[in-house]
Amino acid sequence: MEIEAILGKEKLDRNDLMMLLQATDEDKKLLFQRAEKIKLAEVGKKVHFRGLVEFSNICGKDCYYCGIRKSNRAVHRYDVTDEQILESARFAYEHDYGSLVLQSGELESPAFTDRIEKLLRSIKQISHGELGVTLSLGEQKKEVYERWYEAGAHRYLLRIETSNPELYRLYHPSDKLHDFARRLTSLQTLKRIGYQTGTGVMIGLPFQDTLQLADDLLFMKQFDVDMVGMGPYIEHRHTPLFQYRHELLPIRERFDLSLKMIAALRILMKDINIAAATALQAIDPLGREKAVKVGANIIMPNITPGKYRNDYALYENKPCVDEEPEECLNCLDVRIQLTDGEIGYGEWGDSKHFQKRTAVM
Ligand code: 5AD
Ligand code: FES
Fold it and tell me: 320 C-alpha vs ligand 2 centroid, how far in Å?
C-alpha cells in the first residue's frame, strides 16, 4: 500500500526514494511497472545507440575502485591509433549507430587536447556531420571543454561517482587531482558551455547505502542533468577497494539495486536519457535489456577494436570482450526486439530533457 502511495506522489523526497530502493517482491514489481509506463509515455520505446570507443587505458588518476588506475602495474597499457579510431567511427556511421562515445583514461595535456580536437573534426568530416559525438574524458580545463565543443562534440559524460563528498574521499586519494569540488565544477562548466551533460554514480560501493543513493538521485534532479549512466560497482582485485569486498552486497543484490535506481530515476526525471550500463551485463547476460525494460533508453555497444577490449578492464568479467563490433550489432538487434524495444538507427536520440531545457520560447 505504501509503495502505491509513494508512486502516486507529485514530488519524491529522500525517504520516498529510499523506500523505492528498498522495495522487494510485489512492491518492486509495481516500481518497475510504473517506470516502464513513464518511459513509454515520455520517451517512447526507441533505444538509441552510442558506439563506445575505449581508445586508451592510459590514465593519470588513481581512483581506488578502478582497474586501469595509474598504480596498477598489472595492466597492459594501450593507445589505439587515430586511424583506428576513425575506422571505428566509420563503422558506427556505416552501421547507422547515430552517435559515438570517445572514452579513455583521464589525461590532461596540450597534446591530448589537440589530438581530441583533430579527431572530432575528422569524425565530423567522414560522417558528413551526421554522427553525434559524446565525450567521456574526465575533468579538463574550461578552455579544453570549449575547444572540443567548438570542434563538434555536443554531449559530455562525467560521472560524479557519488554525490556525497565524504564517500568521494573514501574512494579517491586526497590530492588535487581527485578533488570532489573540482569534479562538481567541471560538471557545471560543461553545462554552461552548452553540452548535453551527463553524470552518474556507482551502485553498491562499500560503505554506501540507500540513503546516499537516494541523495544521488536527488543530486541528479537538482543539477538538472540531461543524461545519466549508472551501474553496479564491481570489485577489481588489483585495486585498493578490493580489501573491502566482504562489506559489499552480494553481486545479485547490487544488480537488483541498480535496476531500482534506474526505475526510480525514470520516475524522478521523466524525459532524460538513461543508459543501460555495460557493468549490468557483466553480472547478468541480459542485464542491459532488463535495464531497458525498467526505464533505460540508451545502449552503448562497445566498438573498440577487438584486440584492445580486454585491456580496458575497469572491473572484472567485462562482457563482449571477444566479440567484434559486427557480431555485437546483430546480437543487440535481436536482444532489443526481445524487450519490445526498437532501435533508433541513424538518429542522434538527443535527450528530450535537453531539448526542452534549451528551447527558445
Ligand atoms: N565497477 C564499476 N564501475 C566502475 N567504473 C570504474 N571502475 C569501476 C568498477 N570497479 C566506472 C566509473 C567511471 C566509469 C568510466 O566506469 O563510474 O566513471
Ligand atoms: Fe556484444 Fe552481444 S552485445 S556480443
Answer: 5
